[in-house]
Design a protein that fits this description.
Elements lengths: L19 H53 L6 E5 L9 E5 L6 E9 L5 E6 L4 E5 L5 E5 L3 E7 L6 E7 L3 E2 H9 L8 E6 L5 E6 L9 E5 L14 E3 L4 E5 L2 E5 L3 E6 L2 E5 L14 E7 L1 H26 L4 E2 L2 E2 L10 H15 L14 E3 L5 E3 L1 H10 L1 H23 L4 H67 L1
Helix pairs in contact: 1-3, 1-6, 1-7, 3-4, 4-6, 5-6
Length: 482
């Protein structure tokens, strides 16, 4: 018993000779349009909404990041720090300033640099054995051995360590043993071999400042030193010193942390001396950086206006032609969240009163009817010159106020995040609905094909029967005529 296969798309209509394939395709297409169009339109609109919410959050978050730099003081340089070093002059000192440094001017001279102890001892060539080692390297060995103790500083703050040196140790091994000894506070040892064959050892204490002298004990002669090493000192430990407005200050290092109000100084090199022995000074001046602040105020206003404009652009409503939407509005066309945020930002400015009871207009900043901030440069500069610190704090207070209102929308689980999550869930739902429609259309097309296959078969059979009858009739007619 044979079975006929289900006709393929290309075989539909073969039996009847009719274009049944086009009929099925048209019916499926019509059904698809009817069921899919609205869902696809809703899907597209939801994707645009998600894009709009992302743009809005990105703009507001970026604005908040700027406001954080305002609050922290990073956005505006309150002070201009200048020195009178010449263009080709190497500065005698460098500086860092605290954020709350006061206006000031100081005449500064570096009169002494911090240094540690330096010792030098000579081991006569008669106490050195010279031999050729591997790879033809010349080895210099100390004939004598013994124990050495190194001490930096005195009293409770002293640091000591000891090493044992074996007789016939190479001078390289001695250097390594001293420099890497456990408990070494920074003592460094090196050597130079003279043309006379004598070995000159140098010790650097590694710790600067008065009272941090390096002393030795033990068998000091094995490295060319004598006694406690005091006779071998070529450089004593000492503090760094500066004269600030004629007042001497001192530090165990070349850095002066807390001796000048709001300023950290580092001595880089000695100041030059005049013929009378006094030192040449250079001036460090701290003053308001009004030029920088003017630029900052412009940034503050332009970034506010940009955020307001983004809300306006996203909110723009769609237009209609002959009752049909042109979909030419913003990504959040007519969405009230845009106006709500914009109004909260505007109200934060319009209702702002500084800690001293003044409104923002008093500082040269005003808002027009569209919520756009404008600067009255003359009034702004006048307010800044009258009380610079107060003026900077006004922008910090206002920035904190605006940022606080935006937090409700921009935080990780804020309103914008919730709206976006909800929209994405709906987008997933539209995708599921479209997949279901595709499954339905597949079933519908299969059903139509089965239906029209039967019709095609029936019409094909009828056509065959008709042809058979016609052939008999034609044959009968032909026979009777003869």
């Amino acid at each position: 018993m044979s079975t006929s296969a289900t006709p393929t798309m290309s075989s539909l209509g073969v039996g009847s000779g009719l274009d049944l394939e086009s009929i099925v395709t048209a019916m499926v297409s019509a059904k698809s349009t009817t069921k899919k169009h609205k869902v696809e339109q809703q899907q597209a609109l939801k994707e645009i909404e998600i894009s709009g919410l992302s743009k809005l959050k990105s703009t507001l978050t970026s604005y908040q990041d700027f406001l954080k730099t305002v609050s922290s003081g990073e956005a505006v340089n309150k002070r201009s720090i200048t020195t009178d070093f010449g263009e080709n002059q190497t500065p005698t000192f460098s500086y860092e300033t605290a954020s709350d440094v006061s206006n000031s001017a100081h005449d500064i001279a570096v009169t002494q640099l911090a240094q540690g102890t330096r010792m030098r001892g000579t081991v006569d060539s008669s106490a050195i054995t010279v031999e050729q080692g591997a790879d033809n390297k010349t080895l210099y060995r100390l004939q004598n051995g013994g124990s050495l103790t190194f001490t930096v500083g005195s009293g409770d703050s002293a640091s000591s360590f000891s090493v044992d040196i074996d007789a016939n140790s190479t001078i390289d091994s001695v250097i390594k043993k001293v420099n890497s000894a456990q408990g070494n506070p920074g003592v460094s040892m090196s050597y130079v071999i003279g043309s006379d064959g004598n070995v000159r050892f140098t010790l650097d204490s590694g710790k600067t400042g008065d009272g941090n002298e390096l002393t030795l004990s033990g068998d000091t002669g094995i490295i060319g030193m004598s006694g406690d090493g005091s006779d071998n000192i070529i450089q004593h430990a000492q503090n760094a010193k500066m004269e600030i407005d004629g007042v001497e200050i001192s530090s165990a290092t070349n850095t002066f942390e807390d001796q000048v109000s709001g300023i950290k100084l580092t001595a880089e090199r000695l100041s030059e001396q005049k013929e009378d022995g006094t030192f040449v000074t250079n001036t460090l001046k701290v003053a308001e950086d009004k030029e920088s602040f003017s630029s900052f105020a412009s940034d503050f206003v332009s970034k506010f206006n940009s955020a307001i404009q983004t809300c306006t652009t996203l909110y723009a409503r769609n237009t209609y032609t002959d009752g049909k939407c042109n979909y030419d509005g913003g990504d959040l066309a007519g969405d009230p969240i845009c106006n709500t945020i914009k109004n909260q930002m505007k109200n934060a400015v319009n209702t702002f009163v500084s800690s001293n009871g003044k409104m923002l207009y008093s500082y040269g900043i005003s808002m027009d009817k569209d919520g756009v901030l404008q600067i009255d440069s003359e009034k702004l500069n006048k307010a800044a010159s009258e009380n610079y610190d107060e003026f900077v704090s006004v922008f910090q207070e206002l920035g904190d106020s605006i940022s606080g209102k935006l937090d409700t929308y921009t935080k990780s689980r804020g309103i914008l995040a919730q709206r976006s999550d909800s929209a994405k869930n709906m987008l997933d739902d539209y995708t599921t609905r479209l997949n279901n429609i595709d499954e339905y259309l597949s079933t519908y097309e299969s059903m139509m094909r089965k239906k029209y296959t039967k019709l095609d078969t029936l019409l094909g059979t009828m056509s065959s029967s008709m042809s058979y009858v016609q052939s008999i009739m034609a044959s009968a007619t032909s026979g009777s005529g003869s």
